[in-house]
Amino acid sequence: MKIKDLFGRGAKIFSFEFFPPKTPEGLAALYAALEELRALKPSFVSVTYGAGGSTRDRTVELVGHIKNRLGIEAMAHLTCVGAGRREIQDILERLRASGIENILALRGDPPEGAARFTPPPDGFAHASDLVAFIRSRYGDGFCLGGAAYPEGHVESRSLEEDLAHLKIKVDAGVDFLITQLFFDNRVYFDFVARARRAGITVPILPGIMPVTNVAQIKRFTRQCGATIPKPLMARLEAVQEDPEAVVRVGVDHATEQCLALLAGDAPGIHFYTLNKSTATRTIYQNLQRAREVSWKSP
């Protein structure tokens, strides 16, 4: 099923993002987490694409396993990094052969050690170029998602410039958007309002990452340009030497975020799991107990 067809059915969308592990032990743990997740009937699961395309084969294998073996709708991330048109075409054919209908089209981050993104020979400089390429080859054969940055992409000079780039990407053929992580819901709602004024009408799914490690979330937010509200940071730093307490604070904050987002008419929640499904499962169960959400999967 194409993810775009899940929106507008009256039920909220709940999705989970994982990355391909690099070790057999990590892969076994991921499969176990996915089996546990299957019982919760998520709307879809997405699988990331390693830096420089380093995990592209595992991404293709995993999304095929998730869809065809576990019966969960799956979305493959696809980036412009390290691949020209022919290689991207080959990956698209492999995805189509596996029955995958959903792709998150991304430019991707520069390879480790590179100061800036450099398009490969015969490759693409922007996600909008990748979207246009897929549409030109496959029409509506794939449902295409795109990334959105409520606080602006780190390489954009202003929020206005970032929104203009997003409009180009959507106009190229994006069906829905998933936001970068954020910790203040006003950031999301303000962004959606600005996007609508700019003529962007596709669904915008908020991306939520529960904090499970203080040093890690500081590093992530520096890299992606997101901000952590001072009250939340104070709560986290007060317990940063107690890993279990950090997780409790992170889960509590994310639960409150999700409840307010859903009450404010967000179409659902996309969870960045970092392959640690316990925290996100706890949030999911918290929402269920609050009886704020319809749990019938679209």
CATH topology: TIM Barrel
Under CATH at level 1, the class stands as: Alpha Beta
Strand order of the largest sheet: 1-2-3-4-5-6-7-8
Total DSSP E strands? 8
The helix count comes to 10
Task: Give the ordered list of helices and strands.
Answer: EHEHEHEHEHEHEHHHEH
Provide the gyration radius in Å.
18 Å
Report what the structure shows:
It is a single chain. With about 300 residues, this protein is of the alpha/beta class. Helix 4 (about 125-140) runs parallel beside helix 5 (about 160-175) and helix 8 (about 230-240) runs antiparallel to helix 9 (about 245-265). The longest helix has 21 residues, at about 245-265. The termini are close together. About 40% of the residues are buried. The chain has an eight-stranded parallel β-barrel, surrounded by four helices. Residues about 290-298 have low confidence and may be disordered. It has ten helices and eight strands.
Secondary structure blueprint with pairings:
Layout: E1 13-18, H1 24-38, E2 44-47, H2 56-68, E3 74-79, H3 85-97, E4 102-106, H4 127-138, E5 143-148, H5 159-173, E6 176-181, H6 185-197, E7 204-208, H7 214-224, H8 230-238, H9 243-263, E8 268-272, H10 277-290
Parallel strand pairs: 1-2, 1-8, 2-3, 3-4, 4-5, 5-6, 6-7, 7-8
Describe, in short, the structure shown.
The chain has 298 residues and is α/β, with parallel strands linked by helices. The protein has one domain (3-288): TIM Barrel. Helices cover 46% and strands 14% of the residues.
